[in-house]
Specification:
about 40% helix; Rossmann fold; binds glutamine; 2 domains; nine-stranded mixed β-sheet
Amino acid sequence: MKQKFIFVAGGVMSGVGKGIATASIGRILKEYGYKTTAIKVDPYINFDAGTLRPTEHGEVWVTEDGGEIDQDLGSYERFLGQELSRRNNITTGQVYSAIIERERSGKYGGKTVQFIPHVPQEIISRIKEAGNGYNIILTEIGGTIGDYENIPFLFAAKSLERELGKENVVYVLITYLPVPHHISEMKTKPTQQAIKSLYQLGIFPDFILCRAHQPLDNVRKKKIETYANIETDYVISAPDVDNVYEVPLNFEREKLGKKILGKLHLNPLKKPKWEEWKKLVKSINHPKKEIDIAMIGKYIDIGAFTLKDSYISVNEALRHAGAMLNIGINIHWIDAKEIEENGTEILKNFRGLVVPGGFGLSGVEGKITAIKYARENNIPYLGLCFGMQLAVVEFARNVLGFSNAHTTEVDPKNRNPVIDLMPSQREVLKESRYGATMRLGAYSAILRKNTLVYRLYKESGRISSDMKKTKDIKEKFRLGKVRKGDEFVFERHRHRYEVNPKFISKFEKKGLIFSGMHRSIAGEKLMEFIEIPAHRFFVATQAHPEFKSSLCHPSPLFLGFVRESAK
Ligand code: GLN
C-alpha cells in the first residue's frame, strides 16, 4: 500500500497533551491493523535533548539505539508498545547540520543552498527515512502554530501533501478551549485563530481535537463548524482525564480511528482488541488496594512542577506494574535534602523506596541515608542507575567498612572509589565532549542464574539465549561478548560511571551479589544488577528499565518491587 502521513500540530498554547494525543492515535491505528510509527519534531536548535537540563525539558528519553530525545517519544513507545529509533526525533539543529555538512562537502554541486526548498526537503527526507517500512507515519510538530520555529516543518508537510496527494496526508490540529473563571463559558475564539494561522500556510486541518477541562458540547462544536468550516463530525472532544491511558478509549468513543482511516481512503484491516487495555485502565482507576511508595530525588533543585516530569518514565513504570497487579501506587516525592536535614523519620510510612537516576552531588548523602534505612529495615528497595551506584557506595561504607567510599562523580580524589569512570569515559571528559558520549542505549546483561533478578526476568519471558538471533543485532557492541549458554536481557542505559571491578569480590563476600553483567567487546566487565539475597527485596540496576515498560508489558523489576512492597 501507499504510505500515509498524519501531521499533528498544536494551536493556542503548548502543554495540552499533544504527545499523548499523537501516541493515542498511533495506538488506535495499530489496533486497526496498520503498521504505524510516530515521529516528534522539536523545532529547537539543540541537536538532541541529551544536553538539556531537566528543568528546561523534563525527562530525556533514551531509545534502544542510544538516542537521547524528547520525552514524548516515551509516550509513543508506551502507547504503541514498540521500539522507536533515535531517527524518530527530528530537531532544527539536525536539519541544518546535515544541510551545512552536505554543502561543505560539495554535494549541492555549486547551487545556492536556500531555506526554500532545501530545508523542507531535508525535513521530508528525514520523515521518510524514519517512516521506512510503516504504513502510517504520524509526525507531531512541537511548539504552537504561529511560532517562527515550526514554519519550515509545516511547509514540509504541505510540500509532502502536494507530492503525494491529499488522500495520503491528514492534518490534526490540537487546540485548547479555555473556560475563563469570571464567565464560566468555554471560549472557541483562540481555536478559530489557530485554524486561521494554519490556513495562512495553506493547510486545512481535517480534524480539530479540542482539549478542555470538560467535554465539548454541541453548541461549541457547531460554532467551530461555522467559523472554521469543519464538519462537527471532525471536531473531536478531548476532555481532561486523570489517567492518560483513557485517551485512546475516549477517542474511539468518537470513532476517531475510523474517521481518520476514511480520510486516508483506508479500511480497517482488523477489529481492534481493547479488552486487556480496558482492564488495566480500570485497575489503575479502581485498584483493589493502594500502597505508598517514596521516590527520593532532588526536589528543591528541580522545583515542584517539573520534578514529576523529570521522572515520568519511572512513574509510568510503577503505574504499569501496579495496573497488572491491581495495586494503586501513591508516589510520594521526598526531597533527599530533607532527609539530610531531618533524618529518616519521614520514610517510616512507606512500603517501598525508589532512588531513581540522577547526576551530581546535590542530595547525595540524603539518598545514601535512605538506602541504608531500606537495607537495614528490610524495606523493599529499587535503585535505578544512580540509585544502584549509591547503593553500592552505601554498602561499601556501612558493611565493608570503607567509611569514606564514594563515587568519583561526587568525590574525584576518593581513596575507595567503588564507582568510577572507565578509561574510555575518562578520555571523553578530558576533551569536554559532552554531547551523546555517555554509555547510551541498550546493552546486553548476562544474568546469573539462581538470583532474584534472573527469576523476575524469566517470569516475564524477556530472557534470550538464542545465539542465532544475536546475528540479527546490528550494533555488535550492544550485544558485547555473549557466549553459548549465556542467558541475557537488554536494558537501556544513560550514564558515565560504573562499578569499579576492583571491589567486586569484597562485596560478594559480604552478601551483595552482582546478578548480571555486560561483557564488553573491549573486554570490560560492567556490572548491571545488584541484589542482597538476605533482604526481602533489595534490587538495583545500572540500567533504566523504566524505558522498556508499557501498560501491557510492565518491567520485570518494577513488577517484582511492587508485588513485594504490597505484601
Ligand atoms: N550520574 C551517574 C552516571 O553518570 C548516573 C546517571 C543516571 O542515573 N542516569 O553514571
